[in-house]
Amino acid sequence: MNRFIRYIQRYKGWFGGAAAICLLVGLYTGLLVSPPDYYQGEVVRIMYVHVPLAHTSLLAYSILFGGSIWFLWKRDPLVDNMCQAASSITALFTGLALVTGSIWAKPTWNTWWTWDPRLVSFAVLLLILAGYMMLRRLVDDPDKQGIYAAVLAIVGGVDLPIIKFSVEWWRTLHQPMSISTRGISISDDLLLPLTFMSLGCWLLFAYMLMVRTQMLYLIELLQAKKGRLLSQTHFSQSAQ
Amino acid sequence: MPFLKTIQWVVWKDLVCELRSRETISSMLFFALIVILVFSFSFSMDQDAARQLIAGIIWVAFAFTGIIGLGKSFSSELQNDCLEALQVSPIPKGAVYLGKVLANFLFILSVEILLFPLFILFFNLDVVAELGLLLLVFFLATLGLSSVGTLFSALTVQIRAREVMLPVLLLPLAVPVMIAAVEATRGILNGDPYSFYSQWIQLLVVFDIIFTVVSFWLFELILDS
Amino acid sequence: MIAIQATNLSKAYGFYRIFEDLSFDILAGECFALFGPNGAGKTTLLRILATLQQPSGGHFSIFGQNGVKEKELVRQSLMVIAHGSHLYEELTGFENLQFALALRGQTIDVKSLKHALDRVGIGAFADLKVRQYSAGMKKRLALAKVVIVKPKLLLLDEPYNALDEAGVTMTNLIIRQTLESEGAVLMTTHDHDKASQVATGGGILQSGKLQLITREQLT
């Protein structure tokens, strides 16, 4: 079996455990210890989930981006498995970041959706990821699947900062961003749970990525074994 | 320069085929006309409302019309396996890419220039003072759409559900082009001073350069892997 | 001189294996006829040798150049005529020929183009759109490319399909000329009789294995 898969098998438990501890500490300090915000009250606590999720989805996309370049360079099928795994997990984190952002927007801005640059960029990112996952299912030639997907991930990664800038300019032009700073000054009380939650989310992403990569690798291995068996029977039958 | 020669031949081939069959341009024109009609039914506008909305309407029509042209660009290569011939020829694939971008750019831009007077007519707009600047915006935005669009046209033509997947993949990536084109067009049609919308024109230039270069390098992987 | 040297070539689509560990040599001046039942992977093998697809394993070289790593060089010396005719329906036969040569980086004068079209018997239709050509005429137009390019390696996928008697004779004539100028030909076919007129050797691809046959066994 592949060397990296053995490493994953050996160490993934540590990542999972560390993620669980960090998230528990973060949730405890965030929900129970830290004081409510002066302006927003208890509502501010959703920040401890929303901000780490948003950070993690950007980090996750950069891993997908880097992995895609690496795959095009080295053509290692395991890296392709990792990219495929990263895409769906990134989509999950991005989707959750959007949903929590939307929930947070309702009490603070009194609307579920606003054309805030960050929300719009995340929505576009989610669309790109949805396209990526659809694309993977629609390529018939398995050799080309990884390459096409990597091309899309790279173009998307280059585009993402440009999308962010353009949406930001567009908003400032039409409506000054008075509420965009959200009126929160980061104090030490907030910093502690935020750090733990961010760390927890990153570790959780790493853990999920490992499990999913391993799974995709093993599925392919199984299919290859099944295929060898199938073609052996096919070959011996038609030889008779 | 064999590289420039190849670009020239690819453009020549697409132009000659198009001039004889008129398939792409006529379907683009017809589609765009319907879009204009539907828009004018959906918003019964006075001139002030039209001024506000027209830039968006123009670019929605242009983007979808452009996607029709971009899709045809490579699906026409499927007949008789011509795509295979492009792949197996010893010429650099980047030349094929640039030739295709140029041909698509010419098709889309000519349709846009044909359509624009109709927009003026149907939505009762004043004739624009800064026609040169407006053409520059059309030019830059169309180049941006064609540079990414040609790459994804070559990609989607080799997968299932290609007609659906081209817009699904292309439109999110084209968000900056669309925003910049709409804002710049709105500024010009409103008669705003140049400094109000110069940033959008700069954004279009940056987008065009980045994505022509990126797609140029990635195209070989799409056509020949 | 070895035209094609294949070592342990194998191809799988995902988990479905088509053939495994094919090794064979084809020398310059040889015409290799590839037989085999439908679905055995004849066309796939031909497409791999034509650099249209990547092998899943093994490697091959064409006139000493690596077929996977030096694709661009290999493509200079080979020419493939596959199921699709590689023709644009809206262009005339003459223009198609011009464009096909331009894609190979060649510009040829009008006279020798016309001459090539005459040689394959469609000179009279040079200025007719390919849309109006019959299947046989399209095959002949593809052969006209071979006449001009004179490739060192010619790969033919079912060359005798849709051709009349005269077309078959002409195909075989062009194959012989390629062989005489120290080129090599590989074709897939089901037609023993027509292939055996020109083939110098061959093989049967079946059950993922290639069984070589000599010239004597062919006839």
How much of the residues of chain C is beta strand, in percent?
Answer: 25-35%
Q: Cα-atom Rg of chain B, whole angstroms?
A: 18 Å
Number of helices of chain C: 8
CATH class of chain C: Alpha Beta
Top keywords for this entry?
heterotrimer; B: 225 residues; mainly alpha; 9 helices; C: 219 residues; alpha/beta; Rossmann fold; 8 helices; 10 strands; globular
Structure explained in plain terms:
The complex is a heterotrimer of chains A (240), B (225) and C (219). Chain A has a single domain (14-177, 187-228), classed as Four Helix Bundle (Hemerythrin (Met), subunit A) (Up-down Bundle). Chain A is 83% helix and 0% strand. Chain A starts with a helix and ends with a helix. With 240 residues, chain A is mostly helical. Chain B has 225 residues and is mostly helical. Chain B has one domain (2-223). Chain B contains nine helices and no strands. In chain B, helix 2 runs parallel beside helix 5 (93-122) and helix 6 packs parallel to helix 9 (194-223). The longest helix of chain B is centred in the middle third of the chain and has 30 residues, at 93-122. The model of chain B has no long low-confidence stretch (mean pLDDT 92). Chain C is of the alpha/beta class and 219 residues long. Chain C has a single domain (2-88, 151-218), classed as P-loop containing nucleotide triphosphate hydrolases (Rossmann fold, 3-Layer(aba) Sandwich), CATH 3.40.50.300. Helix content of chain C is 35%, strand content 28%. In chain C, the strands form two sheets. In chain C, strands 6-7-8-3-9-10 form a six-stranded mixed β-sheet, sandwiched between helices. Chain C is globular. Chain C starts with a strand and ends with a helix. Chains in contact: A-B, A-C, B-C. Chains A and B meet through helix 4 and helix 5 of A and helix 6, helix 7, helix 8 and helix 9 of B.
Outline of the structure:
The complex is a heterotrimer of chains A (240), B (225) and C (219). Chain B has 225 residues and is an all-alpha fold. Chain B has helices at 2-21, 23-42, 47-75, 82-88, 93-122, 131-156, 162-173, 175-190, 194-223.
